[in-house]
Amino acid sequence: MNYDFLFDMLQTESVSGGEIALQKRVAAHMEQQGCAVQTDYTGNVIASINEQSPLKVLMTGHIDEIGFRVTYITEKGMIKLGKAGFIRPELMQGKRVTILGKKRVTGVMGILLKDGQVRTDAALTEMYVDCGFRSEKEAAEWITPGDFVTYTYTYDLLENNCIAGRGLDDKLGVFTVMQALLRAKELGAAVGAYAGATVGEETTMRGAYFAAMRVKPAIAIAVDVIHTSDYPGSEAERFGRIELGGGPVLVRSACSNEPTVRALEAAAKELGMAVQYEIACGVTGTDADKMHLSAEGIPMAVVSIPLRYMHSPSEVGCLSDVENCVELLARFIAGLDQSFSPDPFLG
């Protein structure tokens, strides 16, 4: 599988609320692949095939990543931040960041001391970015409140087909749904298949709602990431026994559409592919929750990609899991016809 598109996404910042630069690249890439592409005022990009089919399936991955926004500049030229998404302050100190101001400015998250020792109880409101500026006036030449800030790390390839990087949540998902769309086309899919790169999942979940309302699919599938339980201190009891490299994760939640989950299981069995399970007793915390509450209630499912160290500067995933998710979704879509119904009362 050609990962150039994924690597390009991982090197392009897309902090929640600031996704458009990357979305333009996604739209251009899918147009080059021969797909129909539509956008909306929210910032979503939706690629599709077989638009004439009355049976529509929408897959989504969210393009936004966690990060920060500049809130103000101190008299000494230090940059204060607000969070864009679920940030872990305990991971911030000493990390290098990039401020996307009038020019790209590199900075370092300051280290907070108490009695000469690094504090372990730092709050985001106490943190600051040191760019080397000497005054507020000097910093303000390049930086404005509202500018987006990311950890500088992009990606590195690890052993056993693993990858480490910032924003794997959920650029792995966007890559998966776009590749699954193209693979489904290769397999001769006849149904209307739509792959959406949605905005705002980490902060407002607005993108998923508007994507679902635009497409009005018979089925919606969110592709996101899920914590693994295969490293020290992780909790298998929380989500289930989930391993990196263990294959796609099917989510069973209060909102999951069981006919769709069973169809995904059948596709995996046909492929001889192992699947794992995540148990979400309530909502899933993904785009699927918003899509489910769209229109008249859209049947939904979630396919998750195993991930270690979620919402850190160096998340770790496995490209083998990505490839298996692509093939599973593509086979599922290619196997659908007008006889399929997500109606739970029929099964």
Provide key terms for this protein.
19 strands, alpha+beta, 27% strand, 27% helix, 347 residues
Structure description:
Helix 4 packs across helix 9 (319-334). The protein contains nine helices and 19 strands. By secondary structure, the protein is α+β, with helices and mostly antiparallel strands.
Structural class: alpha+beta
Strand content: 25-35%
Number of strands: 19
What's the overall geometry? globular
Compute the average pLDDT: 96
| Spans where pLDDT lies below 50 across 5 or more residues | none
Radius of gyration: 21 Å
Count of discrete alpha- or pi-helical segments spanning 4 or more residues? 9
Distance between the termini: 36 Å
Describe this structure in a few short sentences.
The protein contains 9 helices and 19 strands. The protein has 347 residues and is α+β, with helices and mostly antiparallel strands.
Helix and strand topology:
Blueprint: H1 4-10, H2 20-32, E1 36-39, E2 45-49, E3 56-62, E4 67-73, E5 79-84, E6 96-100, E7 104-109, E8 113-114, E9 117-118, E10 129-130, H3 136-140, E11 148-151, E12 155-157, E13 162-165, H4 168-186, E14 192-198, H5 206-215, E15 219-227, H6 236-239, E16 249-253, H7 258-271, E17 276-280, H8 287-292, E18 300-307, E19 315-318, H9 319-334
Parallel strand pairs: 3-14, 3-15, 15-18, 16-17
Antiparallel strand pairs: 1-2, 2-14, 4-5, 4-11, 6-7, 6-11, 7-10, 8-9, 12-13, 13-19, 16-18
Helix pairs in contact: 1-4, 4-9, 7-9
